[in-house]
Design a protein that fits this description.
13% of the residues lie in helices and 37% in strands. The chain has helices at 14-59, 101-110; strands at residues 67-71, 81-86, 92-100, 116-119, 132-139, 161-163, 168-170, 176-178, 185-187, 194-199, 202-207, 210-212, 219-221, 225-230, 235-237, 241-245, 250-252, 256-263, 266-273, 279-285, 300-308, 318-321, 325-329, 335-341, 358-365, 375-378, 382-386, 392-398, 414-421. The longest helix has 46 residues, at 14-59. The termini are far apart. It contains two helices and 29 strands. It has a five-stranded antiparallel β-sheet with strand order 1-2-3-5-4. Strands 27-14-29-28 form a four-stranded antiparallel β-sheet, with no helix packed on it. The protein is mainly beta. It is elongated.
């Protein structure tokens, strides 16, 4: 008789091994992302702490005289270059130089005006992170860096105007002058008789019967032709309101407490916080937040849960839950924020009602909810290639410069026309010189 040996194999199959490796891979990727997030959040915290320390040091100076950007004398924990500024109004600012993109993004999330307001080096609100960032920190509701003002008279002696939004003194661009109220700028040209020309932010004036030249200060006679480029219009809309989503925190606390003292004659129990009538205190913990459980050796103050006599409870109840939504930009009284987007420009909807770190929305009446963000700006449908004098208008008829093909309802990328007097609809092209 042939003897058959039974062989038993131990271990896992190749499919099981591959499955375990796949799970490990997913966990590893998630772990790396979580680590990087925590790393950059820690860096942002350190940078903000350094900035606040520099601000506190500056506020504590006995000399209240203004001074330009000056580097701090101590070594920052963030190892960043930190400078401080006191302006002519006695407002103090801190600048941190060389913040990388990911740390910058965390700082944007953590800065909530008026406690912390961020600006760039041109005194504009800091909103977008680049590869390397120099951020100016303002604490405790301090306004935009610069000379503060309330009316135009505050800036008049310096030849500046009071910018109405940020309430700081600014200089008019070339070709503009301060307006009568001192809160903005008017163009230098006489609107009744002159055309304002602009090239690379340089402005000059030409007579209404002339057109702007191709170089700064040049005015030309028109040859009677004009042309405009047809643009794809862009609509810019922004949200009215926004909220920051934060991790909820629960507060757990006991219902009752007793003082227990062990003596040679036995334990003396003194009530410090009793339960309602008909309930008893199930003593379970050594602390009010129900973190540490009693042991046989415990004495002193003990904490518990009020329970019905036939149903002893062993877990403390939640006494409060923090609000997961932190207001960043609110709505007027009588309206609510209809959160619908993950970006301020209202281009990305909140996915499947899952929420996002920052959520943006539209201020709506309680009885009329709307998710359409208000339009702030619409780009021009046409851009001038060659204009007419101010005393004439451009009558666009043709798709070519030689006036041979009339434009139809489909239009064209560039339309050509004739400069006509305002009471004329002439279609005949002038003779080119």
């Amino acid at each position: 008789m042939t003897k058959i040996n039974n062989i038993y194999e131990n271990g896992r199959s190749i499919v099981e091994v591959l499955g375990i490796l796949a799970v490990i891979g997913v966990l590893s990727v998630g772990g790396v992302k979580a680590y990087r997030y925590a790393f950059h959040k820690h860096n942002a915290n350190v940078i903000i702490q350094d900035a606040h320390l520099a601000y506190t040091e500056l506020r504590g100076m006995t000399n209240n005289q203004p001074h330009p950007w000056t580097a701090v004398t101590w070594e920052a924990k963030s190892h960043k270059t930190i400078e401080t500024l006191r302006d002519n109004d006695g407002d103090d600012y801190v600048k941190v130089i060389g913040i990388d993109t990911e740390d910058c993004k965390q700082i944007l999330l953590m800065s909530v005006p008026p406690r912390i307001t961020l600006f760039d080096e041109n005194a504009k609100r800091f909103e977008v992170c680049a590869e390397s960032n120099n951020i100016v920190f303002a604490f405790d509701g301090v306004r935009v860096p610069g000379i503060n003002c309330e009316t135009g008279s505050d800036c008049a002696q310096m030849g500046m105007y009071c910018q109405s939004v940020d309430k700081i003194c600014k200089t008019c661009a070339e070709g503009y002058k301060i307006n009568a109220k001192g809160n903005g700028c008017d163009r230098v040209c006489q609107l009744d008789t002159q055309t304002t020309c602009e090239l690379d932010k340089n402005y000059w004036c030409c007579d209404h019967n002339l057109i702007c030249g191709t170089t700064v200060g040049e005015c030309q006679e028109s040859d009677g032709f004009c042309a405009y480029k047809i643009n794809q219009q862009k609509i810019e809309a922004t949200s009215d309101c926004s909220y920051l989503y934060i991790q909820q925190e629960q507060t757990i606390s006991s219902d009752c407490q007793y003082e227990v003292k062990n003596t040679t004659d036995g334990a003396i129990v003194t009530p410090k916080k009793k339960c309602p009538q008909g309930q008893f205190c199930n003593l379970r913990f050594t602390d009010e937040k129900c973190q540490n459980t009693l042991t046989d050796a415990s004495n002193g103050t003990m904490y518990g849960i009020c329970s019905a006599k036939n149903l002893p409870l062993s877990s403390c109840l939640v006494s409060s839950v923090s609000n997961p939504m932190k207001l960043q930009k609110g709505c007027p009284k009588g309206q609510y924020c209809n959160l619908a987007y993950t970006d301020e420009l209202c281009t990305a909807k909140i996915p499947n009602d899952l929420g996002a770190n920052i959520m943006y929305g539209v201020c709506s009446a309680l009885y009329n909810p709307s998710s359409n963000c208000p339009i702030q700006k619409i780009s021009n449908a046409v851009s001038p290639i060659k204009k007419c004098p101010q005393t004439k208008y451009c009558n666009l008829f043709y798709t070519d410069e030689t006036c041979t093909t009339l434009a139809d309802n489909n239009g064209a990328n560039i339309l050509y026309g004739i400069c006509n007097k305002k009471d004329s609809a002439n279609k005949t092209c002038p003779t080119k010189k």
